[in-house]
Description:
2 copies of one chain form a homodimer.
Chain A: E1 6-7, H1 17-25, H2 45-62, E2 68-73, H3 76-88, E3 94-98, H4 101-111, E4 116-121, E5 144-148, E6 150-151, E7 156-157, E8 168-172, E9 189-193, E10 204-209, H5 226-231, H6 241-257, H7 259-280, E11 285-286, E12 297-301, H8 305-317, E13 320-321, E14 332-335, H9 342-358
Parallel strand pairs in A: 1-13, 3-4, 3-5, 5-8, 8-9
Antiparallel strand pairs in A: 2-10, 6-7, 9-10, 11-12, 12-14
Helix pairs in contact in A: 1-6, 2-6, 3-4, 6-7, 7-9
Amino acid sequence: MENRVYNFAAGPSMLADEVLLAIKEELFNYHGSGMSVMEMSHRSKGYLEIFEKTKNGLKKLMNIPDDYEILFMHGGATGMFASIPLNLTKGKTADYIITGNFSKKAADEAKKYGDVHIAYDGKENNYTHIPDENELSFSADPAYIHLCANNTIYGTEWKSFPVNHKTTLIADMSSDILSKPVNVSDFGLIYAGAQKNMGIAGIAVAIIRKELIEEADVKVPSIMNYALELKHDSMLNTPATYPIYVLGKVVDWLEELGGLAEIEKRNIEKAKILYDYLDASKFYKSFAEKESRSLMNVTFSCGDPDLDAAFAAKAAENGLCNLKGHRLVGGLRASIYNAMPKAGVEKLIEFMDDFAREN
Amino acid sequence: MENRVYNFAAGPSMLADEVLLAIKEELFNYHGSGMSVMEMSHRSKGYLEIFEKTKNGLKKLMNIPDDYEILFMHGGATGMFASIPLNLTKGKTADYIITGNFSKKAADEAKKYGDVHIAYDGKENNYTHIPDENELSFSADPAYIHLCANNTIYGTEWKSFPVNHKTTLIADMSSDILSKPVNVSDFGLIYAGAQKNMGIAGIAVAIIRKELIEEADVKVPSIMNYALELKHDSMLNTPATYPIYVLGKVVDWLEELGGLAEIEKRNIEKAKILYDYLDASKFYKSFAEKESRSLMNVTFSCGDPDLDAAFAAKAAENGLCNLKGHRLVGGLRASIYNAMPKAGVEKLIEFMDDFAREN
C-alpha cells in the first residue's frame, strides 16, 4: 500500500492496512456472490451471514456474556445520548459523571427527558483529571450511572471504573472500545460510535444486559427503542450495512493478531514511548494529569499557539496528519488508536525531536 | 468487472459499475491524501470538499432551489418518520396518505406525537392503486400532507402529485428519488433513505424548504432536530461519512450520463419492456393496477407460491438475484433502480420466457 500517511485524526480515523486490503479484495464480488457487500439486501442470506459473523466475532473478542445483546443503533453516540434516558431512566434520576465534552453532552441530552444528578464535574480542573471513587457523589437511587471511558478531546481515560454503587453502570467507550480487555459484566450498557476503533462512521454499537430492556414509553422514536431493536435483531429498518461489515473486518484483524490482551500490550507500548518522550522534553507540555492519561488520545502542546499551528502544518507535510488539537483544548493531539502502528508513533517522535531542535 | 450478477433486490441494491470502479480506484488513497475516505475526519479539509461537492452536485442534478437545504440525517427513512412530526406538526394535525407499508409506518410513528388524519388508505384494494386527487380527503388545516412517492413492496408509484391543497407536501421518495426529474418546489420536504437510488445504507437525505425549519421542541432528540442539524450543516455529530461520499459518486455518474431526464428515459424504457412482456404473457400476473405501476419495483407472480419460489431459486442460479417478492405481497418482484442496466431486464425477460415454457 503506497503513499499512505500516518493519520492521527480523532475519528473517523485510521484503519489497519489489513482491514482496507480485505475490503478492497471483496469490493466487487463478495465470496462469489457476484455483488459488493454495499449492494446486499440486509435481509439476504449472504448479508445475514456477515451480520451474524460480526456479532459472534465481537462477542468472542470482547468475551461478552450470554445475557448481553449486541445492538447496532443509528445516530452514533449522540443518538445514544438520547436513547439511553428515553429507554432506561424509567422515571428515576440518572447520575452522570462529567469528565469532558461528550459526557457533558450526554448529561445535557438526558436532562430533556428526566432528572439528572451530576455525580462529578471536572470542569474546574479543565478536564485534565479522572476522578477517584471518593470524588464521586451519587444520588440516592439512580436508574444508572453514566460515564465516558475515554475523553477524546482532553486525552484522559478511566483506568478502573467505579464499584461503590448499587446500580447500573453505563459507559460511552466510543474512543477506547477494543483497545484493551474490559469486564463487560461490570456494565449494564457499553456503547460506542464505530468510527474510531470499530471501523467507519454510521453505527453505534450497544452491548446491553438484556434484562435492562423493557417495553419503552410509546413516545420513544422507533429507531431509538431498544425493545423494538432487540425484537428485530437491529433490523427494525435497514441498518448501516457497510459499517457493520467493516466492523467484522476489524474484529477479524484483532482476533488474528492475538485479541484484546495483545492489542492492549501494543497500545501501552505505543503510548509509553510517546508519553516518556513528552515527560523528558523541555519543549513540549503534556495536557492531561499523569495518572489520568489516555492510551488513545495524547494531548500536548509546544506552549505557543503559533508554534502548535506550525507543528501541525509541518507534520502534515511529513506524512503525519491531523495533529491539531480540538478547539476546546487547543494545542496538539495524537490519536493513536488500535490501527496506528508503532512505526507511526516512532516517526512522530522523530519529527517532534527535529521540530523542538529547530524551534 | 467479472462474474457480477444482476441484483434485483429492493434495497440495499445494485450500484452502477462506474460507481463501484470509482470507489475502488480511490479506496486506499483518495486524491493523493494518503488515506481512504473511510478514514477521513469529517472535519478535515479533504472530507469537507467531498461533502460540499456531494451537496452541490445533488443540488444541480435535482435542480434544487436556493431556498432549500440538503440535510444528511441519521436513522434512514424510519428515523424521518419520527423527526417529521417532531419538527413539523407544531401542534397541528398532520395528514397522511397511505398507499402501502411505509406510508402506514410513517403515519403510525406520527400518531405518537400528535393528531394524524388519514386522507386516504388503499388497504381495501390491497395497495394496488395510487389515488386520484378526488379520492383524497384532507383535514381542515393540516400542518402538512405526507405521502410515499413509490411503494417498494407493492410496486406502485405516484405519476403526479396532489395540488388541490393549501399546505406543505412531504414525500418519502426513498425508492424513486433520482429516477426522474421532480419539481422540488412542489414539496416542503423530500426525503429518502440512500440505499436504493442514492448509494448505500446509512443516511437519509432530506431536502427541505428552509423556512419550515424552526426551533424544535426541547424534547426532540438532538440527532432528529432539523434546526440543530441545519445550524451544524449536518455535522452536529459525526455523519455517516462514507455513504455521503458514495452518494457523491452516484451523482457524478448520473450527471455524466446526462442527468435525470436521461435516466428517466432509460427507466421508462426498462420498465416498459418488462411490463409489456407481463401484459402479453398468459403465465405471469402483474400485481399493481396498470395506471399505478412503479418504474422502480415491478411486482408479479406465476400465480402459484411454489412456482414463484422455484422461479426465484432458478433465476438466482442464472445470475438474476433477489427476485422473491416481499412477504406482504408474496410472488416476485424485480427492483430495477437506476443502476440496473437494460441488459439485466432483457436477461430477466429471457429467463421468464424460458421458465414459462418449461412450467
